Amino acid sequence: MTGRVNDTASAHRNRAAELGLRMTSTGSCPRRLVRLPHRPGQCWCETRLNDHGRRYRTVGNDTPVVMWEPYPADGQDVARVVVLAEADGLLVTITGASPWNPGETFALIFEAAR
Ligand SMILES: [Zn+2]
């Protein structure tokens, strides 16, 4: 059982690495990227979209990012997160290149706006 979980985690980590993302922690609150605190119970990161959330650094330029990898989601939920993230000084990229469950999950990638 444990081996299977570890295999899944390892495969996820390896697929992320193939996309140029080095996993650094299981922290999933994007607000940390702009030195804002996570607000338990009222944080916009506490959403169904925050599935398989992890923190990474990009291999190319070592930029810290947070990636969430939900299964298909309501567009209004996505829009709400994007608006709140941008209000906190974050940029959001949405891509189909999701390493969690390729072809089934999609990725929301947060990084600090420059
Ligand atoms: Zn949070």
Name the features.
single chain; 114 residues; alpha+beta; Phosphorylase Kinase, domain 1; five-stranded antiparallel sheet; binds zinc ion
Structural class, from helix and strand content?
alpha+beta
- How would you describe the oligomerization state of the chains in this entry? single chain
Mean of residue pLDDT?
94
Widest sheet: strand ordering: 1-2-3-5-4
Main β sheet profile:
5 strands, antiparallel
Give an account of the 3D structure.
It is a single chain. The chain is an alpha+beta fold. The protein has one domain: Phosphorylase Kinase, domain 1 (2-Layer Sandwich). The protein has 2 helices and 5 strands. Strand 2 (54-58) and strand 3 form a beta hairpin. The radius of gyration is 14 Å and the shape is globular. It binds zinc ion. Zinc ion is lined by residues 29, 31, 38, 43, 45.
Quick rundown:
By secondary structure, this protein is an alpha+beta fold.
SSE blueprint and pairings:
Layout: H1 2-18, E1 21-25, E2 54-58, E3 64-68, H2 75-87, E4 90-95, E5 107-112
Antiparallel strand pairs: 1-2, 2-3, 3-5, 4-5
